[in-house]
Amino acid sequence: MTWTDVTYVPIQPAAVLERVGASEDGAVAFFMGIVRNANEGRPVSGLEYDGYRRMAKAQLSAIVAEAAERAESDRVAAVHRLGPLGIGEVSVAIAVSAPHRAQAFEAARFVIEEIKKRLPVWKREHYLDGETAWLDGHVPATERGGVR
Amino acid sequence: MDVTVLLFAGHRELAGTPSIVVSLPQRATVDMLLSALRGRGEGWAALPRSVSVAVNREYADGDTVLVEGDEVALIPPVAGG
Fold this sequence. Notes:
The complex is a heterodimer of chains A (148) and B (81). Chain A contains 3 helices and 9 strands, in the order βαβββαβββαββ. Chain B contains 2 helices and 5 strands. The longest helix of chain B has 9 residues. The interface between A and B is medium-sized, with 38 and 24 residues.
């Protein structure tokens, strides 16, 4: 069973890991994104994530479903944090278990790269000098077009 | 017909609101909505020339035809992870 969430509640890494694993799996890949103390040389005091939460939940579920198909494993879990975060806090956590390590690594990598491309979430950095800025991001590709 | 427009991040600051309801002619497209929004002046006029849009929580393009009650979100370049 895959599992996803987009939440204002702090991420508990161990709880994400517990969402994956099966007796046929010999590998678990686990990725976390962490708030760091600087960006492009500018000291950062913290940041906030704004999100279109209902759409982000649907997008994250779709990304994880694609990853599960690629990994031939439905043991894929991913969560993205919203709201204010301090240095060292977890912004995203992804766990994949699969029979072999290549599938697990590849699926975890796929999930984080797709999050960067299309999860409707935005990051505002707060700098030590008191200024703030919305970070430049990635323009998402249109998934469907035309008249409906 | 009325559609609800949602704004996020820098777009919300330009517009000064998280959401508005906009009245449009029947069979209006996403591009027509964007023109109507820019025509409101002030911060709205400063919306980027190219804006990603989601209709009812799925990415859509400018030709997408809107219907009464649609939830249209302007999506700034995304920066998750």
